[in-house]
Amino acid sequence: MVTKLCTALVLGLVGLFHTDPAFADDDKPLAALDYKMAGDANRARIVIHFDREPEPKWFLLRGPHRLVVDLPETTFAFDPSSLEPRGLVSGVRYGLLSEGRSRLILSTSGSFQVEKLNILKNKTTTGYRLVADLSSASERRFDELLTEQATKTGSTRTAKKGDRLGQRQRPVQKPFTIVIDPGHGGIDGGANGVSGIKEKVITLAFAKELRKSLEDVGKYRVFMTRERDEFLRLDERVRVARQHEADLFLSLHADTIRLRGIRGATVYTISEKASDAVSKAIAERENLSDAIAGVPLADEKQEVADILIDLARRETQIFSIRFARQLVGEMTGEVELINNPHRSAGFKVLRAPDVPSVLVELGYLSNSKDEALMRNPDWRKKAVRSITSAVTLFASVRDGKDG
Predict the structure, then answer these.
(1) Could you report the average pLDDT of every consecutive run of 10 residues in the chain (403 residues)?
(2) What pTM does this model have?
(3) Domain boundary among 122, 157, 192
(4) Cα–Cα distance between 365 and 370 in angstroms, integer?
């Protein structure tokens, strides 16, 4: 009887040890339970849940651009559908690397930076989660991060409370850089003029003339988001600006409106709340550009949306407004302007948090006089000259501040 009682007691204790997480078998592989990803072409958040605390190391690679996360031996139970490319992340691979080691590789659609990579303990359930925030960056910034990485001789261990790699510093010697964004393109023709001309044709032709004018100044680097009739998603346009480290982003449009009597150029900056009903309607129309072209809208979770809707850092917004006012001043007397020409609304294409950005409505294609002017070479020369003068003034102020 005593022997049976002792045996039962031992078996009971063994069972207790095996069921209590505090006595988990450390030799058992780590379990990656699920993978979640959300974001767009400029930002991505990756969340991976584990059965117990992992101790990852991570580092960057190029050719293609990748984030590599090394883990102890891990079993992966990811839903394949959760790994589909989304925005900045173009591919996900994972598996056993060698005995006792596993690896997760995130490939990206361009240069990027890791804003933070944290290991957090779950509050309401058992286990831990890895949370990584990535954002698009310039090639120069990516090279800097690779250099920092090399000086640390290997992988960077994840910090419990998060590690922020140094923020981008504007190099004093970098030429002032402008990215011109001809609105719409490809399958997305934009608005139709009263004579049938498409907005995408007007914006591209004007953008090319503006680029030449700015290049002729001889002091600026000038890029365009598109140089031909092609479709670009709104977030891809923002990414072009960020990856070129633009000092100014100019998005060009020529919309239509039901009130055909409204005419004149308008300069928009971003705001969560539109300045007026007309601005709100135009922003809503422009923000549907992706959907019109058949691109599904991202189903973003609120924790990611909070990052993406951080529309502009305070300093960037100040510079955007300053340029908008300078542009209105230079255009006054040169081209027809709408009443209250500096307006604001929640344009997605103006969301770069570190690039001063404005959207210029050259005029309204729903108005026959505006359409005629936008097709007139003399009017375009005046408009281009006004914008070039405003850029020159803005660049001199920024150079003085940075220098």
Answers:
(1) 43 39 62 92 92 92 89 93 90 87 92 92 91 90 85 51 38 81 94 93 97 96 95 91 93 88 92 88 85 59 44 76 95 94 93 91 94 96 97 83 44
(2) 0.68
(3) 157
(4) 6
Q: At 48, is the secondary structure helix, strand, or coil? A: strand
Residues 123 and 256 in one domain: no
DSSP label at 29? Answer: P
Rounded distance between C-alpha atoms, residue 208 and residue 225, angstroms = 11
Pairing of strands 30-39, 43-50: antiparallel
CA nearest to 78, candidates 95, 90, 66, 102? 95
Regarding whether 182 and 140 lie in a shared domain, the answer is: no
Q: What are the φ/ψ torsions at residue 160 (nearest 5 degrees)?
A: -60, -40
Residue from 194, 200, 343, 197 nearest 260 by CA: 194
Looking up residue 65, the CATH number of its domain turns out to be 2.60.40.3500
3-state helix vs strand vs coil in the chain, percent to 5: 35, 30, 35
CATH number at residue 281: 3.40.630.40
Domain containing 112 equals: 27-157
The string of DSSP codes covering 286-339 is HHTHHHHTTPPPP---HHHHHHHT----HHHHHHHHHHHHHHHHHHTTTS-EEE
**In the chain, how many H helices and how many E strands?**
10, 16
Cβ(29)–Cβ(74) under 8 Å? yes
E strand or H helix at 192: none
Q: Are residues 343 and 196 in the same domain?
A: yes
Residue 261's pLDDT is 79
Ramachandran angles phi, psi of 232, nearest 5°: -130, 135
Residue 293, pLDDT score: 65
- The answer for 211, left when phi > 0, alpha when psi is -120 to 50, beta otherwise, is alpha
Same domain, 196 and 74: no
Packing angle between helix 199-217 and helix 377-402, nearest 10 degrees? 50
